[in-house]
Amino acid sequence: MKIKKYLPTILLIIAAAGLIVVGIALKQPQSVLEKAVKICMECIGIG
Amino acid sequence: MADNKKLRLAIQGVATLIQNANLKGFFEGKIYTGPVKNICVPGLNCYSCPGAIGSCPIGSLQTFLTKFKIKIPYYVVGLLLFFAACLGRAVCGFLCPFGMIQELINLIPFPFKKNRFKGDKAFRYLKYVILAACVIILPICFKLTPFFCKYICPSGTIAGIILAITDSAIASKLGAIFTWKVIILISILVSSLIIWRPFCKYICPLGAIYSLFNRVSLIRLKVDESKCINCGKCAKACKMCVDPVKTPNSGECIRCMDCAKVCPEHAITLNVTKIKSHAGKDERIKGEQ
């Protein structure tokens, strides 16, 4: 009964883990890092 | 202040500190550039803030959508789904630094505090419009422009203010967009004096994403119908204007547990922690005396 109640959550977590693994395989964390290690001029209000 | 509020504020403070652990950055005006920054934090915390050690998920999402060749942001969407599935909007209630700032401002005494007003329900949909338009559609249509970060995000404005104070080169470049963003920031902060968490209720696209998954997240509210006496105290206590008896897992519920604390029958619990109300117990003890 409890498993049925949490089935969507479990599936969602598995899907999330899958997407993260695909993203890591495509080296997407590197893209995040490249953007995040520089001051984002748009974010701080310099257009 | 009630014990659970103090505890939640303490958790918010620790979460803010952890997400902004590069404390020396605040004094040097330099941002953290270590490898941890490829991980997105769950709350709204600009990666250009000198203290930030992680990346803002909304900023990172727009990074992928504003590239000349659009990439599907598997990694960022995966992390967002993970946070949403595990915590839902408990992220807003416990882990978001900007949520904490608004709550602290709301603690300041002000004569015109008002949390319920006409049009409030309709205004709640604005955050979904902002998510769709400013975070997804406009960045795709107008390449290289992260619209939400550039024109709205108050977290980025705070980062800009800190950087402008510590770096004269940045201060000299500030112009009309910065002025616009400061106006938005001040409006939100002043509104926070009157309304509880106005940014979270009406504007935040991150809150909009998490709200979609509140019903299926691991952390859920549970109302024991056999105990509930429909006194309405929980709905009155909710600062997000949710009625926990009718919609315990509403997308607006940030799991602050104010409702559980006022429930005289201990009918409301969090399914993962079993936090229970003590109000009823105290009342019964008083009654016995």
Low-confidence stretches of chain A: none
Number of domains of chain A: 1
Helix content of chain B: 40-55%
Describe the largest sheet of chain B: 2 strands, antiparallel
* Order of H and E elements of chain B: HHHHHHHHHHHHHHEHHEH
Measured on Cα atoms, how large is the radius of gyration of chain A?
A: 17 Å
- Average predicted confidence as pLDDT of chain A: 89
Strand segment tally of chain B = 2
**In angstroms, what is the radius of gyration of chain B?**
20 Å
Helix fraction of chain A by DSSP (H/I, runs of at least 4): over 70%
Quick one: which chains have the greatest interface?
A: A-B, 34 and 54 residues
| CA distance, first residue to last residue of chain A | 54 Å
Order of helices and strands of chain A: HHH
Mean pLDDT of chain B: 89
Q: List the total number of helices of chain A.
A: 3
Amount of beta strand of chain A: under 5%
Give the N-to-C terminal Cα separation of chain B: 26 Å
Beta strand count of chain A: 0
Beta-strand content estimate of chain B: under 5%
Can you count the helices of chain B? 17
Q: List segments of chain B where confidence is low: pLDDT < 50 over at least 5 consecutive residues.
A: 273-289
Describe the protein in words.
The complex is a heterodimer of chains A (47) and B (289). With 47 residues, chain A is an all-alpha fold. Chain A has one domain. Chain A has 3 helices and no strands. The longest helix of chain A is centred in the N-terminal third of the chain and has 24 residues. The mean pLDDT of chain A is 89. With 289 residues, chain B is mainly alpha-helical. Chain B has a two-stranded antiparallel sheet. In chain B, helix 4 crosses helix 14. The longest helix of chain B has 19 residues. The two termini of chain B are 26 Å apart. Chains A and B meet through helix 1, helix 2 and helix 3 of A and helix 3, helix 4, helix 10 and helix 12 of B.
